[in-house]
Amino acid sequence: KEDLLFKPIRINDLVRESIALTTPMWKDSPQEKGISIEIVEHLAEEELIILGNASDLGEMIVNLIFNSVDAMPRGGKIDITTYMKDENIYLKISDNGIGMTEETKDRVFDPFFTTKGLNYSGLGLSMSYGILRRHNGLIEIETRPGKGTSFTIILPKGKGVIEKRDKNVIPVVEIEKINILVIDDEPKIGALLSDILSRQGHQTDVFSSAKDGIEAFKKGGYDMLITDLGMPNMSGWEVVRVVRQINPRVLTGMVTGWDISDDETKQKGVDFIINKPFQVNQIVQAVTNAVKSKDN
């Protein structure tokens, strides 16, 4: 059954946006540790259109890129290929990382299964598999220990007209530039938020620990806090409560995959919600609206 929210999408555009969005994790962060990871595009020249939810499919591609990055602790190469065959659109993401055993391969889409330790939920690939099923897609895995992994996504070819849009992935919105504190126990999400906001001209500091973030906030100088809701040791609600005691005028945003009512949001002193999976423009608009409302 086709979702009513499905729209025509250029798969190559989605790939390029996902690569740009994840740059802090596959390029910048490893480079700081002396590690080199490169992504090589092999994108079809013809226009490949699928029908789907761009936000969900973008999250799936991001998860697969993150999976490859995690599989290359000493660096390496990720190849991303798109092509059409038999009225289907193919997206292949390959790495030359550590690979997987057959046992791991068989369990890789199980919820909460992870080989990365206690700090990871193990939901990334499971969520990606769910997204793919909603799009009537298939996934094939080729992997060998020490020889890398390839995920091949197969989606039905879509039909439709796509309006032309600006090629800039992240449009810059003219507003007052502010200092923003980001707290998210998943370092990759924190880095993505920081990258998006920095491109808007804002100054950002990122912490993966609520305690460390609050200590930084106590030193002053922040106009806005953006925090994840579900974190170990301290929830986002508690973080907001503490920082508002320090500075009642600070703007606050919450990142969450949960459904939260407007009443609860206002009652607990949160100015805006960013729902996962989020899109770039959603974050930019939420911050812009909050800053403008403060100015008014």
Automatic annotation (TrEMBL):
Molecular-function GO terms, alphabetical: transferase activity, transferring phosphorus-containing groups
Chain ranges of the Response regulatory domain: 179-291
GO biological process: phosphorelay signal transduction system
SMART domains: HATPase_c (SM00387), REC (SM00448)
Pfam family of the protein (one): Response_reg
Histidine kinase domain sequence ranges: 1-159
Xref: InterPro entries: CheY-like_superfamily, HATPase_C_sf, HATPase_dom, His_kinase_dom, Sig_transdc_His_kin-like_C, Sig_transdc_resp-reg_receiver
The protein's name: Histidine kinase domain-containing protein
Source organism per UniProt: marine sediment metagenome
